[in-house]
């Protein structure tokens, strides 16, 4: 994984709500296109990004504004790739019209994989230790959960991913198709749409933590309900989208 941008209408409220989930948020940098953001950062370079836009000053800000008409929620998902030039050449041969922007490779809106982009791992000199010291003990973005994304699944497979079917402890589906990317990332594909529109195929993320007790204490303190799947032996709990701006979050130890 690289990161998942979650579009939010009220950035300040979203920041406060993610702090109640036990995350530390790093302020974003100024953008000239009206975009503002904050980051949940992890030491391995993965992150959850909360992002908003106030005016359609370019294509990206206009897309975020249009996306938010249907409410908050994860708008894109990103995979790490160490060689974007080689990746661009491979994707071009597939006829996918990739756009290599230097540090990221994106797809035009006309391509089925538009919600997916690839990124280099960028380390910022402003990433201070306190930004990684999450009270909920989170230390890595482990996986993304998708519904009705068969073409994206096939794309990841064509790039060298491995596939297996597994029982999983998710509140929205007991069986998923798990893909492991060449970099070891987990991508969970659910065949049905789970009640979401086809555009909103990103259901949630898995965040690794060192202590579920710490997560429980923080959620209880802030009156946030957590969900544990009945019959599940895995050490994980879930926070519902209503408490995370449209994003299911699995805290897994």
Describe this structure in words.
With 253 residues, the chain is α+β, with helices and mostly antiparallel strands. The protein has 2 domains: 3-119, 2,3-Dihydroxybiphenyl 1,2-Dioxygenase, domain 1; 136-252, 2,3-Dihydroxybiphenyl 1,2-Dioxygenase, domain 1 (Roll), CATH 3.10.180. The protein has 5 helices and 17 strands. The chain has helices at residues 11-20, 59-67, 84-93, 150-158, 212-221, and strands at residues 3-7, 26-27, 35-41, 47-53, 73-74, 77-80, 99-100, 104-106, 116-119, 138-147, 162-167, 175-180, 186-190, 202-209, 226-227, 236-239, 248-252. The strands form 3 sheets. It has an 8-stranded mixed β-sheet with strand order 11-12-13-10-14-17-16-15, with helices on one face. β3 (35-41) and β4 (47-53) form a beta hairpin. The protein is globular. The two termini are 17 Å apart.
What order do the helices and strands come in, and which of them pair?
Elements: E1 3-7, H1 11-20, E2 26-27, E3 35-41, E4 47-53, H2 59-67, E5 73-74, E6 77-80, H3 84-93, E7 99-100, E8 104-106, E9 116-119, E10 138-147, H4 150-158, E11 162-167, E12 175-180, E13 186-190, E14 202-209, H5 212-221, E15 226-227, E16 236-239, E17 248-252
Parallel strand pairs: 1-4, 6-9, 10-13, 14-17
Antiparallel strand pairs: 1-5, 2-3, 3-4, 7-8, 8-9, 10-14, 11-12, 12-13, 15-16, 16-17
Organism: Rhizomicrobium palustre
Pfam family, one: Glyoxalase_3
Protein name: Glyoxalase-like domain-containing protein
């Amino acid at each position: 994984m690289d990161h998942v941008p979650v579009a939010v209408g009220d950035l300040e409220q979203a920041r406060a709500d993610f702090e109640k989930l036990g995350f530390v948020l790093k302020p974003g940098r100024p953008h000239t296109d009206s975009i503002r953001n904050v980051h949940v950062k992890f030491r391995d370079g993965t992150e959850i990004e909360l992002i908003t836009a106030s005016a359609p000053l370019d294509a990206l800000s206009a897309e975020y504004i249009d996306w938010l008409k249907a409410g908050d929620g994860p708008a894109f998902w990103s995979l790490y790739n160490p060689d974007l030039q080689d990746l661009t050449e491979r994707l071009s041969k597939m006829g996918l019209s990739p756009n290599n922007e230097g540090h990221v490779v994106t797809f035009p809106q006309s391509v089925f994989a538009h919600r997916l982009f690839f990124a280099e791992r960028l380390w910022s000199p402003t990433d201070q230790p306190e930004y990684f010291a999450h009270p909920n003990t989170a230390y890595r973005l482990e996986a993304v959960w998708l519904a009705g994304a068969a073409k994206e699944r096939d794309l990841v497979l064509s790039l060298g991913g491995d596939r297996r079917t597994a029982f999983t402890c998710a509140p929205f589906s007991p069986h998923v198709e798990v893909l492991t990317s060449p970099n070891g990332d987990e991508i969970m594909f659910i065949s049905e749409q789970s009640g979401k529109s086809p555009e909103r195929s990103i259901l949630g993320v898995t965040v690794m933590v060192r202590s579920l007790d710490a997560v429980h204490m923080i959620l209880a303190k802030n009156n946030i309900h957590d969900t544990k799947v009945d019959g599940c032996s895995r050490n994980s709990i879930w926070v519902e989208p209503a408490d995370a701006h449209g994003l299911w979050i699995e805290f897994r130890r």
